[in-house]
Amino acid sequence: MRLGQRTKKAIAAAAAAGLLFGTAGCTVDGTPVRVGGAPDTGAVDTDQFEGLLTECSILPTSVIAETVGGSVADPVFFGAICRWVVAGAGITDVTLAWYEWGDLNLEKQTAKRLGFETENVQIKSMAAFTQRDPKRSGVCGVTAKSPGRGILTWWVEPQAGGQDACTSATKLMELVLDAAG
């Protein structure tokens, strides 16, 4: 391939600029300031979030355990989602997600795009759907519109046999919607 004279000059200029700026270093005088001039205090205004971490305590752990057929529910993660490991006859992982700005239809489209089987259901007068991963037939999620805003999803993942995961996830959703109503 033959390069034109302009292309050769452009490559040479870019290489020279890279050498000049790459070896010269760069310093900036002054103190960095956030946009708007406010100093970074590290504080986050949590008032803008309606229920920050309160969703993790919407049901007592004893109720979560009993609902999925266990005797004890150990909270293992509270953050963007809430997770419990339920022990009893077997081990069951339970997850609750509340997306304040979530959309039921978008969530269902995403589940389908991931290859999950979905079924429309109604729980306590709220539109909802179940979702199952065909590769893990014992696992089930139930997603419903939140009474306030957004969507709620319960995932129930028995490690071996046990209660029907969709029955348990549906019952957890009923309990949450009762508590919210």
Q: What do these coordinates show?
A:
With 181 residues, the protein is of the alpha+beta class. Helices cover 29% and strands 32% of the residues. The chain has helices at residues 5-24, 61-67, 104-113, 165-180, and strands spanning 70-78, 82-88, 91-99, 117-123, 126-133, 136-145, 151-158. The chain has a seven-stranded antiparallel beta sheet, with helices on both faces. A hairpin with a 2-residue loop joins β2 (82-88) and β3. The longest helix has 20 residues, at 5-24. The chain starts with a helix and ends with a helix. Residues 10-24 have low confidence and may be disordered.
Which helices and strands appear, and what pairs or packs with what?
Elements: H1 5-24, H2 61-67, E1 70-78, E2 82-88, E3 91-99, H3 104-113, E4 117-123, E5 126-133, E6 136-145, E7 151-158, H4 165-180
Antiparallel strand pairs: 1-2, 2-3, 3-7, 4-5, 5-6, 6-7
